[in-house]
Amino acid sequence: xxxxxxxxxxxxxxxxxxxxxxxxxxxxxxxxxxxxxxxxxxxxxxxxxxxxxxxxxxxxxxxxxxxxxxxxxxxxxxxxxxxxxxxxxxxxxxxxxxxxxxxxxxxxxxxx
Length: 112
Known about the structure:
The protein is α+β, with helices and mostly antiparallel strands. It has 5 helices and 4 strands.
């Protein structure tokens, strides 16, 4: 299993396709070979998001290479998504990253 920082490195392949208050659609922008290689990493990201406080649901569309996330904007600020994906150091992105790191740590601990 990859480390959180290795997983975070794959975010360069993810773009925000659409974002409204409480719902964001993320799009994988990579070629087919990259998608096949990164399928495992995508499952790891999904398992982290599934357990993230404030995330209500996740819908994955493999054919469209997209993922819709419904979330509580009072728990996860809307700007956290764009800042985190762009690597912008902001309080909102730091909060989201901290929560994701904690969930990742819990998942890793359970697998031991």
